[in-house]
Amino acid sequence: MKKSIKAMSVFMSAMLTLGSLGAVSLTAGAQESIGTVTKITSGDFVYTVEDNVATIVDYTGSANALVIPQTIDGRKIVRIGDYALSKKAKLNSVVVPESVESIGSSAFEDSVDLKKVTLPDGVTKIGPSAFYGCSKLTTVNIPAKLEEIDDYTFSGCTQLTDIKLSESVTYVGESAFEGCSNLNSVTLSENTETIGDCAFYECDSLYSINLENVSQIGAGAFVYCSNLDDIDLTNCSLIG
Asked: What is the pTM of this model?
């Protein structure tokens, strides 16, 4: 009987200890495990953790002007995840912190009221379709360390009027600016060598783009660019 009582006492003690540990872990935010990934809710943000740095995977607030912090629960935010800020109907502007190094695929996709995004220069990767369908987007800076404009990145951003690529950009992807009907001026970097298929398809307001350093232009890259009347293809070796 004494052994049974002792065993029960040990069991209850262990359960209380686990319960207290669980309570401590939730002070930073509610946790939800999906497969091997743990999502943590902290205020209006949902994030995941790897190597003690955070990726924002969702925003549940209702701010019109969102300033993302550099840290969350003491962890540095280094990435805005796939679809993290997509379809946020009330969002007008977003400031991404200096700590962020990459933007995921479709991160802002179809946030139809988004007008301005401020990105830090340290961003080296913006995923495909990151701003797809942001039809009111008028202002976005291209980070100094960004290496390429990925496929469909700004497709359907009908209010963009001009874009200046940073010197590090060497590639403009497939349909990157497709349907940007008010885009009238594009300044490519001197290091931009390749323009993908349909990159500027239906950019019917485009009248100015510097192509003198571009060596490859994909199929349909400038289809329906009816106002483009002066281009330099001196160094172009392949036109799709």
From this structure: 0.85
